[in-house]
Amino acid sequence: MPTVTKFAVPLATTLLLAACASGPKTPDWQLEAKGAMERSVAAYMEGNSRVELAELARARSQLSRTGRADLLATAELLHCATRVASLVFEPCAGFEKLRQDAAPAERAYADYLRGQLQPQGIALLPPQQRAAAAGNAGAVKGMADPLSQLVAAGVLLQSGKASPAVIAQAIDSASSQGWRRPLLAWLGLQAQRAEQGGDAQEAARLRRRIALAEHAPASALPPKEAVKESK
């Protein structure tokens, strides 16, 4: 019986194959779940909520067939990580339903996403997230995975430790991936701070950039809404 030996960093949805593979032929449910989660994440980051929810439902259906709470919990955490990356801070409802059967590492990651991880839980996180969980804002830039960078930046923002450099890094990461939803959220936050700081010229520049990024499908999240949800 295959087991999950380590909780993977969000976006590494290949764990649905690598962590569960039990032979030369990959079961169809693994392929379906992996593909659906990848499409769900991509759709959310692009601002397409309709496709995101449809693919998430498909992934949940495939994973539920196994009767394994650990696999479903990992998918729910990935789903919630995209929200944190986009400054939408809310309870990870799907995971909480599974918390009592989840592994300690999964529970620690859920607490991390909420900015509520206790110091003793840091060692349970993926290595690249531990420094950020400890409050080291400089660790964000050194992360290779763009979604991990955005998640770490979101966690730091929740704890009041996101420096201007962290916000700038989050914007660069979202922009480089073409992830419209988090880009608009982080740009909106940066523009808001520029306005609050009295830098009208910088705020105007950022609003022009936001206007460019907003040339998107209607499902994309407007920057002001994103900032509102981040409060």
How is this structure best summarized?
With 231 residues, the chain is mainly alpha-helical.
Major pleated sheet: none
Assembly context of the chains: single chain
Shape: globular
What is the N-to-C order of secondary-structure elements (H for helix, E for strand)? HHHHHHHHHHHH
Taking all Cα atoms into account, the compactness measure Rg is 18 Å
Which structural class matches the secondary elements? Answer: mainly alpha
Whole-number mean pLDDT: 84
* Distance between the first and last residues' Cα: 44 Å
Count of helical stretches: 12
What is the number of beta strands? Answer: 0
Q: What's the helical proportion of residues?
A: 55-70%
Stretches where pLDDT is under 50 for at least 5 consecutive residues are 1-21, 218-231
Strand content: under 5%
